[in-house]
Amino acid sequence: MKIWNTYTSIVKNNILLSSQENKDLKYWRDDMFSNTIIYIIPLSVIALIPSLIWAFEEKLYLMVIVDIFSVLLAIFTGIKKGIKIKQRKLLFIGTVYTLSSFLIYYVGLNSTLYLLAACFLATFIYTFKNQYAPALFNIYISIFYILLYYLEMTPPHNINFKSSELFAVFSNLIFLSFLVCSLVPKLFHGLDESFKNNIKHTKKIEKQNEVLKEITWIQSHVVRTPLSRLMAITNLLKENDNTEEEKTFLIDNIVVSSNELDQIIQEIVSKSEKIRSSEN
């Protein structure tokens, strides 16, 4: 457990360089990417070992290199310090697409699932200028594979299917890829609006709390000064031995203190109005 916590801490600290007080959608997408790297590195061993065994048995040494290199790049993406998160994401997406392409070439049509997974991951963790870019990548890879197939440049064990099967598999891949690229950005747009509204609401509440603190401070400290003075003057006026001059002086101070108290009350009312106006 300690090793796992240390490992996750290293990856998170490398990818999420700064924590945000108000976590917007970008932060959560970056956090999703960091979690993807955290889990994909140890879990990739599950796929790597049997894949290496198969590749060695089939004498597909290039596939061995690609498998190992892909895992090393995933580790590099998570462990290496000083890389911008945009570059980390592009490196990871490129690695996934490269591995998926080699798997389709050497393993066959069953591996188109990897291209769909690559499209899904790319759409989730990265914002492309063209939202359909991952689906377009899958089109290019599909066209390239079909050309290799018709030029008989694919491995012999990958030609044991009909052309109709080839087009059916890739057409479904392209359909699902465009579906992912269409729906996921809509989901993120809705979430982004929700995050922005929540952040706006949080800031409004924080501002209201600050004003309420000011009002509380004014009521407990600022109001107390003229009020205490008024109470003291009132007690002095109750005495019967005050001279006319003293009474005039005390009354003048009552007026001054009353004006001070009125200004303070107006300030409190003004701040209260700010709270009410911010709620509308």
From TrEMBL:
EC number, as in UniProt: 2.7.13.3
**Which keywords label this protein?**
Membrane, Transmembrane, Transmembrane helix
Q: Does the keyword Zinc-finger apply?
A: no
Membrane-spanning intervals of the chain: 36-54, 60-78, 90-107, 113-128, 135-151, 166-188
Could you cite one Gene Ontology molecular function of this protein? phosphorelay sensor kinase activity
Give the Pfam families listed for this entry.
MASE11
Catalytic activity of the protein: ATP + protein L-histidine = ADP + protein N-phospho-L-histidine
In what residue span(s) does the MASE11 domain sit?
Answer: 27-190
In Swiss-Prot or TrEMBL terms, this protein is called histidine kinase
Q: Which organism is it from?
A: Flavobacterium commune
